[in-house]
Amino acid sequence: MEFSLDLNSEQRELRDWVHGFAAEAVRPAAAEWDEREETPWPVLQEAAKIGLYGFEFLANAWADPSGLSMCLANEELFWGDAGIAMSIMGTSLAVAAIFGNGDPEQLAEWVPQCFGTESEPAVAAFCSTEPEAGSDVAAMRTRAVYDEATDEWVLNGQKAFATNGGIAAVHVVTASVDPSLGSRGQAAFVVPPGTPGLHSTRKLKKLGLRASHTADVFLDDVRLPSSCLLGGRERLEERLAKARSGERSGGQASMRTFELSRPTVGAQALGIARAAYEYALDYAKQRVQFGRPIIENQGIAFALADMKMEIDAARLLVWRAAWMGRNNRPFSAGEGSMSKLKAGEVAVDVTSRAVQILGGAGFTREHPVERWYRDAKIYTIFEGTSEIQRLVIARAISGMPLR
User: Fold this and answer.
1) Which tens digit of pLDDT belongs to each residue from 62-115?
2) 383 an active-site residue?
3) Is 246 helix (H, G, I), strand (E, B) or coil?
């Protein structure tokens, strides 16, 4: 078979379609919703109307055997604006958790509820991080205890930094069912709309992604029927038994979700970086100093050359990891972590350079590069910090239990 890096006609059509929505509906609204720091429900509804927000879109994108469609869509949407795009795509992390941990019946029941309807869109939240358990997933304190008398699970704990936390129709919550097993003793649960005991604090004020709702979520004696345990009790007991006997029992609930999402998160960072690079390039061609466009100065031209090179290099890592994930290839050298790590750090570097190229103008809100600079930083922090990604890669290539 001939090797090719060309996108096929369906992928190009998808990319151009999402780019058009980002250019016409997302980017013009970006500054307003960044200032308001509110979920952009009108834009979310427009995305639902055209079929960009909903399970059918995710299913079609996931059906792409190359694994690239989700990355293409995310890069273009985040090129428009990261805060608005996260409001649109944030639900997909909860969907990934249901997909990665649930059975077919649970997918059919809960995934449509994550999105709501075209006229009344809803959002979903994946709740894993805790005040004392971010990178250290094994330190999770949220507990799930099975009540045999009622055939219910009872959840208690606190989740931190949950995208769509509190405003979501569906919350997917990870909890420890056997603390003695660490991360291998955890499971994922669906908390349906209106469940008593789940409540949230105010929306957190953030450096970037301001249009995306982030909040802490509290669970106080949240009672869930057994059907809300993703994968079912029989599969959980089998996995716990293997873990207790020392056998390999497969990945734990949070990490399976992150493994599915890392290349997509990398693509989001790429979208931000590309937006900043393109804006800085255009500015450098037009800005005149000392009688000539500043791009004619090597200091500026070389910076732009590096920005372009790093973006393209990161994209290749993202595409490789997306293909491997879609085709069930093991990340033997931490390829998923490589893609997210490289793309996140490139986004921070490129947006910083873009601000520098614009000089004083780049430091003002008259130009969007300062917003992209703020938005980019989170990509070295959430869903595994850059330090944790390096640890994953180092463990993969060395075979050693590094700490």
Assistant:
1) 899 999 999 999 999 999 999 999 999 999 999 989 988 999 999 999 999 999
2) yes
3) coil
Q: What is the CA radius of gyration of the chain?
A: 22
Alpha helix stretches (DSSP H) within 287-385: 298-326, 335-358, 369-376
Outline where DSSP puts E strands in 248-296.
288-289, 292-293
Q: How many residues does the chain have?
A: 403
CA dist 67 and 69 (Å) reads 6
Rounded to an integer, the average pLDDT of 358-370 is: 97
Name which of 334, 331, 350 is nearest 386 in CA terms: 334
Over residues 43-55, the mean pLDDT reads 96
Contacts of the segment 247-256: beta carbons below 8 A, 24+ positions apart: 249/184, 252/137, 252/183, 252/184, 252/186, 253/97, 253/101, 253/128, 253/174, 253/186, 253/187, 253/188, 254/128, 254/137, 254/174, 254/183, 254/186, 254/188, 255/137, 255/183, 256/97, 256/100, 256/101
Question: What dihedral do alpha carbons 368, 372, 375, 379 form, nearest 10°?
Answer: 170
Could you say which of 3.40.50.300, 3.20.20.140, 1.20.1560.10, 1.10.540.10 is the CATH number of the domain covering 9-115?
1.10.540.10
For the record, the structure tokens of 364 come out as 């003002």
CB 230 within 8 A of CB 190: yes
- Spot the catalytic one: 46, 259, 345, 383: 383
Q: Give the integer Cα–Cα distance in Å for 69 and 77.
A: 12
User: What is the third-level CATH fold of 253-398?
Assistant: Butyryl-CoA Dehydrogenase, subunit A; domain 3 (1.20.140)
pLDDT digits (tens, 9 = 90+) for 198-234: 999 888 999 999 999 999 999 999 999 999 999 999 9
Residue 24 DSSP one-character state: I
pLDDT-derived band at 402, boundaries 50, 70, 90: confident
pTM score of the predicted model: 0.94
